[in-house]
């Protein structure tokens, strides 16, 4: 079983209706899909991934360290009911060097304005 793969090169042609139907079905039945031939520059894709991952990591870290699980782990209280992933995360996560959450639209605009899309 493999997730649906949708070829976006057919989106602006005679097969547009077929492509849109595949997209609709993938969203409805799978909730995810792989897009081929999307024509988005690799440099922009990498920048988008980095900005999103940085934002996610900073928010995830902040909310996790404020959670009751993290507080119990830091205080070395009883943790027998905490799964191993949570305890591994709190003890082995490297210290972040992120000082602020980036302005996503500004970051992406800067990359997009310098690319040849």
Spell out the blueprint of helices and strands.
Elements lengths: L4 E3 L8 H14 L4 E3 L5 H24 L2 H7 L9 H9 L11 H11 L3
Parallel strand pairs: 1-2
Helix pairs in contact: 2-5, 3-4
Helix residue percentage? 55-70%
Number of helices: 5
Task: Report the strand count.
Answer: 2
Mean pLDDT: 76
Strand order of the largest sheet: 1-2
- As a percent range, the share of strand residues is 5-15%
Largest sheet geometry: 2 strands, parallel
| Radius of gyration using CA atoms only | 21 Å
- Written as H for each helix and E for each strand, in order along the chain, the element string is EHEHHHH
Total separate domains: 2
Uncertain runs are: none
The secondary structure category is: mainly alpha
Q: Describe it for me?
A:
With 117 residues, the chain is mainly alpha-helical. The protein folds into two domains: 1-39, no CATH class; 41-117, no CATH class. Helix content is 56%, strand content 5%. Strands 1-2 form a two-stranded parallel ribbon. The longest helix is centred in the middle third of the chain and has 24 residues, at 42-65. Pfam families: DIOX_N. GO terms for molecular function: L-ascorbic acid binding; metal ion binding.
Keywords:
elongated; two-stranded parallel ribbon; mainly alpha; 5 helices
């Amino acid at each position: 079983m493999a997730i649906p793969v949708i070829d976006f090169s057919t989106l602006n042609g005679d097969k547009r209706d077929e492509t849109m139907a595949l997209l609709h079905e993938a969203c409805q039945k799978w909730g995810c899909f792989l897009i081929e031939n999307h024509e988005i520059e690799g440099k922009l894709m990498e920048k988008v991934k980095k900005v999103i991952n940085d934002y996610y990591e900073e928010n995830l870290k902040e909310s996790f360290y404020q959670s009751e699980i993290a507080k119990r782990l830091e205080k070395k209280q009883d943790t027998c009911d905490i799964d191993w992933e949570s305890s591994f995360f709190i003890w082995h996560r490297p210290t972040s060097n992120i000082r602020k959450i980036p302005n996503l639209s500004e970051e992406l605009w800067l990359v997009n304005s310098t690319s040849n899309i």
